[in-house]
Amino acid sequence: MxxxxxDVVKALAKVTVQSDEHGLIPEYEVLVNxxxxxxxxxxxxxxxxxxxxxxxxxxxxxxxxxxxCGYHTGCGIITSEIFNEVVMPMVTEGEKDILRGAYAAFTAxxxxxxxxxxxxxxxxMIIRAFDYYEADNQEGGLxxxxxxxxxxxxxxxxxxxxxxxxxxxxxxxxxxGIEAGDxxxxxxxxxx
Length: 192
Fold this sequence. Notes:
Blueprint: H1 5-13, E1 24-25, E2 30-31, H2 37-50, H3 55-78, H4 81-86, H5 95-108, E3 112-120, E4 124-132, H6 145-159, E5 170-176, E6 185-191
Antiparallel strand pairs: 1-2, 3-4, 4-6, 5-6
Helix pairs in contact: 1-5, 3-6, 5-6
């Protein structure tokens, strides 16, 4: 039995994730903020507009910020009691199923309606997303910086050295994007 995506999405969508008075989600031991998607997109656009000659550097910084957050938060999620209760009983294919469960969590919590469409374990993964934070950003070009960083983080957690030593083993490139007029976002994760 592999991870049943719809079962995981339904179960995790029912979970109420609340932060404490310090902004910490005890179940995942991470700090979070609840901010509108439009704020992320506005900040991104203003950063890029303020220094067009440094666009590559800004994009790399946005991806890196998402990556570091995703790497540490992702570890908290996949080692949490909730993940252990909901996803782990369905895991029969090791890392592959843990990744499937992580993307189901992504969907359940509204971060991105996304999933794995191709996986060569430890080498390559293709993700498709039909809704994600930057999808509404019609400023032109492929700009799903957050999802790029998160996809890389998830693959590092699954196939690189154990946390925290596996950072920066893989890289994610975006090949399609809703924000660029495509029907979906597509992301390819490979070894650096």
